């Protein structure tokens, strides 16, 4: 699972000249989904790649990889 560093992503979006809604449209995701990502929800690798490419940054600069931990029963 990938979760974004919210402040970094918001800053990069602003520097790119977009607001959240226009940026979401530019990478072909809904405003709601983009807002959820910025509020801590995990996103797919494909969407993370789109975001990073649109902002001209590395995925690792703006996303943290979180592994799901499963307990053995």
From TrEMBL:
The Gene Ontology terms for molecular function here are: DNA binding
Q: Which Gene3D superfamilies match?
A: lambda repressor-like DNA-binding domains
Q: Which InterPro entries match?
A: Cro/C1-type_HTH, Lambda_DNA-bd_dom_sf
Pfam family for this entry, one: HTH_26
Q: What's the domain of life for this entry? A: Bacteria
What name goes with this protein? HTH cro/C1-type domain-containing protein
- Give the source species: Salinicoccus sediminis
Please state every residue range assigned to the domain named HTH cro/C1-type.
23-62
State the PROSITE patterns in the record. Answer: HTH_CROC1
